[in-house]
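note to self: dont lose this again. the chain is below, predicted strucutre after it. 135 aa total, dont forget to put it in the shared folder this time
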Amino acid sequence: MANQIQPEDPLIPHPLPPEDFDRRELPVIINKGTWYRLNAVDFASSLYFDRTGKGRFDSPAQGYGILYVGADVYASWIECYGRTHGAQGVSESVLRQRDLYAIESSRPLVFADLTGSSLVKMGADARLSSGAIPV
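---
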């Protein structure tokens, strides 16, 4: 059983996009909903596009910013506080460092669908959002 991945092994990196990726139809979701964000209190606007490189979808060279939002309050909570596995709670002092924003778009937004069979259509799998950086 030497070829099996052991639980203590690091995640296997996601492969690079397939050669024909630029010719594949990107599966999308169109939504004109309300989005939620827990933003640092020292930011005056909810529309902060993070370029620190600390987020899981941030550009390695911080060449573009990412706006982390959730489709409901619970998703924004997990996006902000759910990164530590096994955490038993969040202190009041940490909670006071964030404001909850509801963001509404004046037009429908187009999102790449990174769920279920849409990943397969793009030549990807769940490691895209949870695995190691591609090699």
